[in-house]
Specification:
By secondary structure, this protein is α/β, with parallel strands linked by helices. Strand 15, helix 10 and strand 16 form a beta-alpha-beta unit. The longest helix has 18 residues. About 1% of the residues have low confidence.
Length: 480
């Protein structure tokens, strides 16, 4: 395998999905060097055993490369799918009539099985039903008991277990499944850093997951962060309250484009990013970022522009899905995304800053804003933040400074979680002591890292009082 150039740090982070395409430890090492910051394990695919075996390879690769990589467990959630069909699939012809059978798990006499038993009670005549991520479209003609008669508007081949969406109906499907509950236990036992919750509808969904996580972790395990995936129409309607409860947000454009008008997705993406920036919470843009690289060694020009625009909007992270999980070019996909990010961040367009007004904000944000402005005035090489929870570093990142944010923490979990935050360079210092000692030790670690060179001055934000939580708003300039 051709060796990948060891890359420095971009401010916009890269989430790469693991899968069969990167099952070899050598491939994972190259992906880390190419710029992977967070590894996503998608529990919609593969068995728990294969997923955690791949996770073990990732951690081995990271140890050999002396790199920190965060692990995101993406729970499957209650996505509606058709049941099992013949191996060759079922051909749906334009204009033909096809019957869906609610409550069935496998094909019967040419019918399309749908395990969701109450679907027939919830759809109405005239409703659109999208299959295979929107590639196929049916329209409901009539409902007879469990049988849903439909006309094929857009045909094609339907294969087993493909997704089913009813765009104009809020179906009463349970949001957190038995599979999710079992997978979550395994994830916490395997020390995942983040849990992505699929098909969130309300803030209560997030609250319930956090309660479950806290019960499982108890006092002995630092809990993983909760990332809410925005992919339902109800999530858009309830976004402000959901954002209050979430630790981070993923704009999951695939299902979102099925649940809502697809032409609205680009605008919604920008609106969601802007709200996350104001809240100071990480936001990930996902789905079809470089999807043509699943099969081809180069992205389309439109895909390159899509990545660049998300960088200009100041998203914290961008995500690769099938490109790295099952594509032909997993390493090249990461490198290509990193190259586009780097080129965009070096351009003047990246200087278009989001809302930075901290008037009326909590003391923490006002201090963070002051630190960023001080760093600009003294031309500091970096902002160094001591933090136990990660909040201090994310508060600084909210104002998108032009220089690195060196986040110093005594928590390995927080170090990993900050891999998702824009501009953050997490540094682990064992044993929380006085901020001065942490800063001194962190600078020693930085000087040994060949990926960055600091000289001149750094602005230091001491965000926590020694030995306990609570803000001690100290900002000062230190010579390196």
């Amino acid at each position: 395998m051709k060796k990948t150039k060891d890359r420095g740090v971009n401010r916009t982070k890269i989430v790469a999905t693991l899968g069969p395409a990167c099952n070899a430890e050598g491939t994972l090492r190259e992906m880390l060097k190419a710029g992977m910051d967070v590894a996503r394990v998608n529990f919609s695919h593969g068995s728990a055993e294969t997923n955690f075996a791949l996770l073990a390879k990732l951690r081995s690769a990271a140890a050999k490369e002396k790199r920190e990589v965060a692990v995101m467990q993406d729970l499957q959630g209650a996505k509606l799918r058709v049941g099992r069909l013949p191996d060759a699939g079922l051909e749906l012809l334009d204009g033909s009539t096809v019957v869906l059978l609610a409550g069935a798990s496998s094909a019967e006499d040419g019918l399309i099985p749908v395990p969701y038993v109450t679907l027939a009670k919830e759809v109405k005549r005239g409703d659109a039903i999208l299959l295979s991520d929107g590639l196929l479209e049916l329209v409901v003609i009539a409902v007879e008991g469990r049988r849903i008669l439909t006309k094929v508007e857009v045909g094609g081949t339907l294969i087993s277990y493909r997704g089913l969406t009813v765009p104009n109906r809020a179906l009463a499907i349970e949001g957190f499944t038995d599979k999710d509950k079992a997978d979550l236990i395994l994830g916490i036992n395997n020390n995942v850093d983040m849990v992505a919750l699929s098909f969130v509808r309300t803030a209560e969904d997030v609250q319930q997951l956090k309660k479950r996580i806290n019960r499982l972790c108890g006092d002995s395990i630092e809990p993983p962060q909760v990332i809410v995936k925005i992919e339902k129409r109800e999530a858009i309607d309830n976004f402000d309250s959901i954002l209050e409860e979430a630790d981070a947000v993923m704009v999951a454009r695939g299902d979102l484009g099925l649940e809502t008008a697809f032409e609205r997705v680009p605008v919604m993406q920008k609106e969601l990013i802007a709200k996350c920036l104001v809240a100071g919470k990480p936001v990930v843009v996902a789905t079809h970022m470089l999807s043509s690289m699943t099969l081809k060694p180069r992205p389309t020009r439109a895909e390159a522009s899509d990545v660049a625009n998300a960088v200009i909007d100041h998203a914290d992270a961008l995500m690769l899905s099938e490109e790295t999980a099952m594509g032909r070019y997993p390493v090249r996909s990461v490198k290509t995304m990193a190259d586009i990010i780097e080129a965009t961040e070096e351009s003047s367009l990246d200087n278009l800053k989001p809302e930075r007004d901290s008037k009326g904000a909590p003391t923490q944000l006002a201090v963070a804003a002051g630190a960023v402005e001080l760093a600009r005035q003294v031309k500091a090489a970096a902002i160094l933040v001591t933090t136990r929870s990660g909040y201090s570093a994310r508060a600084v990142a909210r104002f998108r400074p032009e220089i690195p944010i060196m986040a110093v923490t005594d928590s390995v979990r927080v170090q990993k979680q900050l891999q998702l935050s824009w501009g953050a360079w997490p540094i682990y210092v064992e044993g929380y002591t006085e901020p001065d000692k942490m800063v001194k030790r962190a600078l020693q670690i930085i000087k040994k890292d060949k990926r960055i060179s600091l000289s001149g001055q750094v602005v230091v934000v001491s965000g926590l009082k020694s030995g306990r939580s609570g803000w001690d708003p100290t900002v000062r300039v230190v010579k390196v």
